[in-house]
Amino acid sequence: MVNYFFISSPLHFFVATNLAIAHKEDVNVALFISKNEKTAQQYAKATKQFSNIFQHTFNLTINDDQKQISQRKLRFEQITKIISSLRPDRIFTGSDRRVEFQFAMHQSRKTNANVQGIYIDDGTVSYLGHKSINSFVHKYIDPYLKKVVYGTWWKNALTTGSSDWISKAYLAVPQDAHPLLKSKELIALDQNIFTRESFLQINEFLIEKYEVLKTINFSKVKVVLCLPNESFYLKNPVFLQQIKHTLTNTFQLSDIAVKAHPKSKNMALLAEVFPESIQLPNTLGMELLLAKLTDDTSIIGDVSTALLTAKWLKPKVSVQAFELNSDISKNLNTLFKSLGISFLSLEPV
């Protein structure tokens, strides 16, 4: 069997790697499409390094200086060429709304009517549904325009993973899948693969560029604090003080590793509020960090996909969420509780 994996985020990469290891007797092909060219290059380098997991790697990421229509045309040409030389039997994707995935399915079906489209877990959207699922534009106007532009092969997905191209879905918690996904064959990801040596080796390769991590003794880290976008606490300065006060009732400052949001810039503020604590690189993804943590580490943060990912990539860790009174917090409450993610009340300063 020849498996194609469309990868456009770190989470897609780790789920794709899990499945490639699970299908190690097959030919596994990694196809990178990302908005971040550097990230795509970094992960493509990893798949090339570990050719025992992914036998072929193609980076379809194109510089943003080209117009979108030109980018799509180039990608379609690349995909057509790849498919003509290596015909897929299964095409995995974290987003069946991506035109490139649908085009690949359309091209593949011309010569192989039995090619399967398979959805891989993309985090909270797999369980809560697309944020615009009920909007008129999302349901009617957008799919109509796409059919006009691309052709009748475009198939609308009201929520990610629900299009007619998809027949199966690999999910971390299939029992909690969004109702629109329950018409598919749902398969539980083998979470044991995330702790296998072959998986940890590729994780270690990716993490090597973070030199500062080599100086950290992670066995002494008792809690990782995952902060929301800094725009939240810059407008609410008491928020950081509340977190500090709450955590230091149980932990020493030196027990805490602080993980800022990837878009954060004011790192000096965090060093000031949490002196003696470990400051982790804000660009370090949770998916990479988890392999470094011991099972008795606690992960605490705002209600987010990062916490969801932490729980199903490393089920034994304790995960707690503090609520920020946002709509997403309310929507995620039920899912988090079903996964064993508890909620932490912040104590007043």
Describe this structure in words.
This protein starts with a strand and ends in a 6-residue tail after the last strand. Helix 3 (68-85) runs parallel beside helix 4. It has two domains: 2-195, Rossmann fold, CATH 3.40.50; 210-343, Sialyltransferase, C-terminal GT-B Rossman nucleotide-binding domain (Rossmann fold), CATH 3.40.50. The protein has a seven-stranded parallel β-sheet, with helices on both faces. Strands 10-9-8-11-12-13 form a six-stranded parallel β-sheet, covered by helices on one side. With 349 residues, it is an alpha/beta fold. Helices cover 38% and strands 17% of the residues. It has helices at 10-22, 37-49, 68-85, 99-109, 125-128, 136-150, 197-207, 230-235, 238-247, 267-273, 286-289, 305-313, 327-338, and strands at 2-7, 27-32, 56-59, 90-93, 116-120, 166-171, 185-188, 223-226, 256-259, 278-280, 298-302, 318-322, 342-343.
Task: Write a compact overview of the structure shown.
The protein is α/β, with parallel strands linked by helices. It contains 13 helices and 13 strands. Helix content is 38%, strand content 17%.
